[in-house]
Amino acid sequence: MEDVNLPTITLRYQGVFDFDGFYSAVIDWAKNEGYMWHEKSFKHKVPSPEGAEQEYDWDLVKNVTEFVRYNILISIHAWEVRDVDMEVNGRKKSMTHARLFIRMNGFVKWDWQKRFAKGGKLGKFLGEMYGKVMTRDLAMYIDQLYFRMGGLHATMKKYFDMQTKKYEYKGYLGES
After folding, report:
1. Sign of CA pseudo-dihedral 145, 147, 151, 157
2. Is residue 61 within 8 Å of residue 69, measured between CB atoms?
3. pLDDT (tens digit, 9 = 90+) per residue, 70-118?
4. Which residue has the higher pLDDT, 128 or 165?
């Protein structure tokens, strides 16, 4: 069976925010949902008068079963990144002013351990049969990952204090 790529979810933001707080909010979400966190790359380009340009690539991985694995790739492109000192609750705090473009791509990987692929012709045949028999359950995994990505998107929007304070599908997957 081929891996399934889910539709890309995007988020754009421009303004002042606490980047360290955003970073820890996403990591907390990943840990609470059982994902392993990997920072694949970080690029910092030479600052211009408007500010620096930075790119981050984060990979969140969760082994759901011995056959199914979730991957969420988060790509952040930040322009005009400047450190700004602001007064928050009577204290000086270092904040970040930037323009952000965040992309989340989700992938459901089947047979991520390559158990069926290693088994020769019989193993490949059994893998295809397993995929056909489990089609309904496998579709459930696709929906589950997409709704989890929606939850992460809502967490990001909530952090940036954008238009929504709640996630409309909260409770859909059985969590509180």
Report:
1. positive
2. yes
3. 999 999 999 999 988 888 788 888 899 999 999 999 999 887 777 777 7
4. 128
SS3 of the chain: helix, strand, coil, percent, to 5: 35, 45, 25
Q: Is residue 39 classed as helix, strand or coil in its secondary structure?
A: strand
Encoding tokens for residue 95?
A: 């904040």
Per-residue pLDDT, 169? 63
CA distances (Å), origin 136, targets 66, 130, 132, 133 = 17, 11, 9, 8
Query: What whole-number distance in Å separates Cα of residue 116 and Cα of residue 9?
Result: 32
Tokens, residue 152? 């992460």
Backbone phi and psi for residue 76, each to the nearest 5 degrees, phi listed first: -120, 125
Any residues with CB less than 8 A from the CB of 106 and at least 6 apart, and which? 5, 6, 70, 71, 72, 73, 145, 146, 149
